[in-house]
Write a structure and sequence with these properties.
Layout: H1 3-22, H2 25-31, H3 33-41, H4 49-53, H5 64-68, H6 73-77, E1 91-96, E2 99-108, E3 111-120, E4 126-135, E5 140-151, E6 161-174, E7 179-192, E8 202-213, H7 219-225, E9 247-256, E10 266-278, E11 284-297, E12 321-322, E13 340-341, E14 343-356, E15 361-363, E16 366-383, E17 396-409, E18 412-425, E19 433-442
Antiparallel strand pairs: 1-2, 1-19, 2-3, 3-4, 4-5, 5-6, 6-7, 7-8, 8-9, 9-10, 10-11, 11-14, 12-13, 14-16, 15-16, 16-17, 17-18, 18-19
Length: 443
């Protein structure tokens, strides 16, 4: 009888443990499903969000692109930066009468970096230029430094050289595509191998105010209103834009003073015009007229009459007008300052007759596109007095024939110009015969 209650007691304990042991799995099974259902519902909402976020970055990039384009476009398209010559934007090699010119240019946003090296094979003259040009919205400015060394004629003494180095600041303010105003401030330091020269170790500090109408891709007009050195002066003018109504001109006034380290005092006035005349639908004449004078200058040779006239004024020699050269009368002699003066004028005409135009004649890798035959004639005079340029006996007249051809070699466009010029009338010391050529490659 006693054993049975104990058995009942143990049976109750076992039943209770079984009951308590079965209760935990019930909540475990009841709690597990909720977390399984919640993660299934949580990822579902973010799934549609990525497609909604993807179109948002797509419209975001376009706004910066148009915002960057308008910044360079206004200055680079029509006004300030139009001076970035599209024909001469990447000149690789320029060969002319034994001279080679190599330019490297890099345009970064509104800034143009340029380096240039000129070398003359015959005389050994060498020039180097470094330029920084910034294109603003309404104007451009250029900062440049240069160093040029020129030697005397072949056979001259080795210590005869002329070195000019310095820096400049050139500001251009375009009024529109065809009208431009220029302001130049420049400092030149002169050194000569002949230490007895009057100009040895002197500084020329001057400022220039200029105005240009029409084409801005003509180096001769650009030299009048802006930087004079480092220009690529071609022999002929066929492949150039001349401006509205086929007419362009440039005028400038230069003032030099004995300020700071300056040693010269003078005023210079210079003007040049360029005009195209159509003779037939395919042939034309290009007329170029130039005139210049020094209304203010000091005479340094009143007590030394035997001094050469080119050294008798408070003007450095390179600033004097030269009647000879590819930018004036082609055939005249330029040595010993026989063709220079403080007063000068000249007129040249180039008659272009097409041999063929817009063709494709192939010779190996060379493609000949256009060729012109040219007849040239020029006249003018230069002197140190106003009455000198009116003397008919000192007038110079020359004429010549030549050709200009445009061809392509692979990716390069090549302009080849050749001209033979002969002096018809001039003082004996100015007479000459010359063959001039230039090879200009553009890529």
């Amino acid at each position: 009888m006693r054993i049975r209650p104990l058995g009942v007691f143990f049976a109750v304990i076992l039943a209770a443990t079984v009951a308590f042991a079965q209760e935990p799995p019930a909540p475990a099974t009841s709690t597990i499903p909720p977390p399984q259902t919640t993660p299934q519902t949580v990822p579902a909402p973010p799934a549609p969000e990525p497609p909604a976020l993807e179109p948002l970055p797509q419209p975001a990039p376009p706004p910066p692109v148009p915002s960057q384009i308008p910044q360079p476009t206004p200055p680079l398209s029509s006004v300030a930066a139009s001076g970035y010559d599209r024909r001469d934007s990447l000149p690789n090699i320029y060969l002319a009468d034994g001279r080679a010119s190599i330019r490297l240019r890099k345009l970064i946003k509104n800034v143009l970096f340029e380096s240039q090296i000129d070398y003359k094979f015959v005389t050994g003259d060498i020039s180097t230029f470094l330029r920084y040009k910034y294109y603003a919205h309404d104007f451009t400015y250029k900062i440049g430094v240069f160093d040029t060394i020129s030697f005397g004629a072949i056979g001259s003494h080795t210590d005869e050289f002329e070195r000019v180095r310095g820096g400049l600041l050139l500001i251009e303010v375009p009024r529109d595509y065809n009208h431009r105003i220029f302001s130049l401030l420049q400092d030149d330091r002169l050194t000569f191998g002949d230490t007895t020269r009057v100009d040895n170790r002197k500084n020329n500090i001057y400022t220039k105010l200029g105005y240009q109408y029409g084409t801005e891709f003509d180096d001769q007009l650009n030299a009048i209103v802006g930087e004079k050195r480092g220009r690529l002066i071609p022999v002929l003018t066929a492949f150039r834009e001349l401006g509205p109504q086929k007419f362009s001109y440039a005028a400038a006034v230069t003032f030099a003073g004995k300020v700071s380290t300056g040693d010269y005092k003078y005023a210079k006035v210079e003007v040049e015009g360029l005009r195209r005349w159509d003779v037939t639908p395919t042939s034309f004449i290009v007329t170029r007229a130039h005139a210049g004078t020094f209304p203010v200058k000091d005479d340094l040779c009143k007590n030394t009459p035997l001094t050469p006239l080119a050294e008798c004024f408070s003007i450095p020699g390179y600033e004097l007008f030269n009647l000879a050269g590819r930018d004036a009368l082609r055939s005249l002699e330029s040595s010993n300052d026989v063709s220079v003066g403080t007063n000068e004028f000249h007129l040249t005409n180039e008659y272009f007759i097409p041999v063929f135009r817009n063709r494709d004649f192939r010779l190996g890798a060379v493609h000949f596109n256009t060729a012109y035959a040219i007849a040239y004639v020029g006249a003018g005079n230069a002197g140190f007095e106003y009455r000198d340029i009116a003397r008919t006996r000192d007038f110079a007249v020359d004429a010549g024939i030549g050709t200009e051809t445009a061809l392509t070699i692979r990716d390069f466009e090549v302009i080849l110009s050749i001209l033979y010029a002969h002096t018809i009338k001039a003082p004996d010391e100015r007479k000459g015969n010359k063959v001039q050529f230039s090879i200009h490659t553009v890529r």
